[in-house]
User: Fold this.
Amino acid sequence: MAESETPKTRPRPLVRLGIFLISHSLLVSVVCCTAGVLALLLLPVLAKNTYISENALMPGSANAMLSSEDISEAHRFMNDLTGLNLKTGETGIESSRLIARYMSDLGADVNYHKFHPQPNQFRPLHFFSNSDSRIIQENICCSSHGVNTVGIIRAPRGDGKEAIVLVTPYNSHKIDLAEALSLAIAYSVFSLLTRVTWLAKDIIWLAADSKYGEYASVSAWLRDYQTPVFGDFEKPYSEICCESNARHGLKESEITERKISDVFRRAGTMAAALVIKVSDGNKQADGTLSIYAEASNGQMPNLDLINIVNNLAVHRQGLQVKVEKLLSLLDSKWLRILGEVFESVGNIARSLNPQWKFGIPAADYMEGAATLASSLYYQALGVPTGSHGAFRDYQVDAITLEISPKVALNNKIRQTEFLQRGGRLIEGVIRSVNNLLEKFHQSFFLYLLTSPSKFVSVGVYMIAFALLVAPLPIVAASLYSDANKWDSSLKKHDPTSSPKSADDEHRNILRSWKWLYAAKQVFIIHSWGVLVSLLPYLICQMPNWMSKVLTWLILGSPIIDADASQSQKREWAILKSVTISAAFIGLCLMSVINFATAEIGALLLVPMCLLAHPLRLDVRAHSLKAFTRAGCNLVLGFIGFPPAAFFVLKGSFEGFESVNISDFWNWIESLWAWNSATYLYIE
Assistant:
């Protein structure tokens, strides 16, 4: 009697919630996906104003010290640089010699850095370890090298443990006026910093020879800077040419010669780096400053570095700061309608409660959405937007500043004003970074920009991603539960099955491990994908005939029998459950490596995972629901195919008349050459 009255134990609330979500997986999927897309569209509305987190930076707290004398010296330096182009028979080393002489006259420690162009070789493990900086092709001749010129100012108030880097890329064979102006801006600041007494960090000026590309020269110098060598290993890399002496044929005074060395000089740990560029005079803008911050695989510098540049440029130098945006979105009609809807909702919210600050003007929404889309795209691409990306590989915060003058660059009357504005901007940034007692750490490293003064933090944009991927584990659990129910119902209605069998427990154990067969299929398919992604690297490492055999084995030979188990609904449900689980794990892992890639991948993969169903079963069903699902699967499969997705996105943003078949392969090759993790993700 007591046993019959014993109440059954109820499951815990968390278990009951899980059962409810699994039993209503369809409704949960629709709600979560809709909310995820809506949250993504709301990000420009939810963006916050930027603010400086580190109080020690204090941008603009001191008056600029750059004088007219520094500007006149910089103007003379610029004229000497441009004058080299008028001389016939001059080689690229003449510009390096001139820059080194001006650096040395200021009292800086000067050295030359020779580097060789690195071949584009795909290294699959480059994401987890640094490549060997000492690998150089044996057949590289003496003439195929570049020469960087490096000047170092030792801080009078420092201990040599920290440094700030200025980078000015230029083509050593022919310096154009824009490059000469950027070098002159750096020289004016460098000249000032040799005299100031408040400097607490060493200053490194890297005049990067960009004849093989801006990134190559900066990356080569950073590899040697971060990888010290000892003994005789450094000697082959410090030699310049067999037909010239150790000074490249320099015939300077003895005092200057003692200050210029071929020995690689170093300063302290890099606190920050600024890449200074001047835009071409043909692209005139009303005194704008463009900031490029994206580094490899979605890495971004500390937001405080962008904030101090924006603060000084706007409030001190009167420059209009810009960041990259997708201009095609500014003409989008659907985006304008969406912005007007959000603006109307914001007006209604403020009419109900004036303290509710929701909604922005439609024009601001379109600007923010275009900037946000650009930030997502370049972070997802995984390719740096400038030579500053080389610094981020060594955890150094760096950005590229491209200044656009108000007038044409050949207007000599306004060149002095331009040099002064640019020089004082760089001086203010250096002075703020010089105040830091430690590395940038207070502000955000994970963020998306909607304008130079507005950002979306990681705590906000991860909500959209979490909502998008939330249905995946719920649907996977629901499919696995349904498969077990089908198995139990089949056994219940089987007339040949005995009510009680000695092997019943053994069969139940085998039935519970049937997901391993589906997991094996998923593992084989993913292994095939990994092999395809490594195919370019493997082909480069083997003879021609071997590469053809390998290509046939991968692309021509069957790996699994796709029809072996997919004719039964139960086994298909288990296979889909395992596949969805693998997709969920992959998306979550990619969100840690590169959020932008994971977000775009979730927009494509989640609908495919939820709607995937055997096409053969849908055709045989002869119902409207089945045909609709089959059509959706075909459309999603087409859009999810990387070439098709690339052409659709490019056509929608730039117009389909500009789409070319070779564009996709050029894009994939660029990902491959830059060792972007997005390449492996796409494969």
